Amino acid sequence: MNQLDALRQWTTVVADTGDFKQLSVSKPQDATTNPSLILKAVQKPEYRPLLDETVKKHAGKPLDEVIDRLLVNFGTEILQIIPGRVSTEVDARLSFDTAATIARGERIVALYKAEGIDTEKRLLIKVASTWEGIEAARQLELKGIRTNLTLLFSFAQAVACGAAKVQLISPFVGRIYDWYKKSAGAKWDEAASAGANDPGVKSVREIFDYYKQHGIKTEVMGASFRNVGQIQALAGCDLLTISPELLAELAASNEPLEHTLDAKAAAKGDAKKVSYDEAGFRFALNEDAMATEKLAEGIRAFAADAVKLEKLMQESGK
Fold first, then answer.
1. Active-site hit among 113, 121, 126, 165
2. What is the pTM of this model?
3. What is the per-residue DSSP string for 86-145?
4. Active-site residue flag, 181
5. Model pLDDT for residues 73-90, shown as the tens digit of each residue
6. Measured at the alpha carbon of residue 235, what is the angle toward residues 187 and 292, in degrees to the nearest 5?
């Protein structure tokens, strides 16, 4: 049994890609996308026609709507290949606007429904884990719209997401690792900070254990991996979303894989229950320099890629 198959025994494997033609190889249960992945995909010759056709078909409509239609076209193609759910992201520029995030999420759901997709079972609306985004997700969940809270870097964000009863969270393992490695500079010891000692892995384990101990139903999906060691150290997490390259690396290895995260064992923990109001949340996030910086950086990066995608669409429509 290769490591990818071994991982599937305990964890739902999710593909992190906009390149849906690769999905038949790795056979994931679910798939996630984001503006950066879609931008990367439409710059490939095999996917550019999807962008051009979307722009042509919806010429004259607002650009933000055309982008949502492109995202839904990608998501619909993905759902033809995978048996589970696809995550489609709300524009990162709305990360601090609860009402606009709700409206955009509802529109994306409506577009999927128009394609005949059972959105309650097969779609997750992806929202940034800001205070405003978490509140938007809470309200969307009350309407039967399932959400995936992304750009999650801190325990405080995870606690607030659990209280909002969101469907799923995506703690970003690799970006946490990046921050600590950069911060340490020449003092960074790669070997000593690998596996279970990886700061991104430790963050996900803390959240996973807390959720299981306190009976929080929100699913934990580790994301943003830099190497297979991070994935191996989180075997047993509810879900892991993995790039095609790392999925291939796992599939090529026949080394034994240890079951490292165990929900039953975690449920026996003794971590104190925590809660935050808005002021408490903002202060806790502010106290975490890594999470504050990576959240802001992530929103800026996704927003920049959304702008690039808009420019490609404008060029296509000329």
1. 126
2. 0.96
3. EEEEPPGGGTT-HHHHHHHHHHHHHHHHHTT--HHHHEEEEEE-SHHHHHHHHHHHHTT-
4. no
5. 999 999 999 999 999 999
6. 50
